[in-house]
Design brief:
By secondary structure, the chain is mainly β. It is built from one helix and nine strands. It starts with 14 loop residues before the first strand and ends with a strand.
Amino acid sequence: MAETTAKIYQNYLRKHFVGNTKEDIISIGAGITAIAPEFEEDSEDFGYYDLNGGTSKFTKSVTISYAFEGHRKYGDAAQDFMREKLFKLDQRDCYFRVIEPDGTTIEGPAKISDVLPHGGEANDPTEFQCTISFDGLPTESKTEPAASPASTKTNK
């Protein structure tokens, strides 16, 4: 039996991108200290006669979102893009891409919500938070781990 090499990666190696379209995405990361992905499923259990009193789970849908938090970095293209959506309730659509360290990419249309553009203690760095949720299920693909997205702008 062939041995497989399993790897554990640090979180900062996962890359996140946002933009108006797939072609104009920009890197999210400057000032961000934590990212919390959430996969919320809507499911129902059904008991079938052939399960001897047990149940089978039927998943109806899944909502995938990523909550970003950290410090407000004014002038950062990604944070400015997300901040601009604060009062534009009908203009929160975006394109979102996540590239995992192993080359797995999930991407698709999404929406920005829960924008917190500032806050915190007087002598602390200004806080920043927002959530990006995929509209429906994103697409998933796999490339070589060292590959980078072809059409991305780098934040400096």
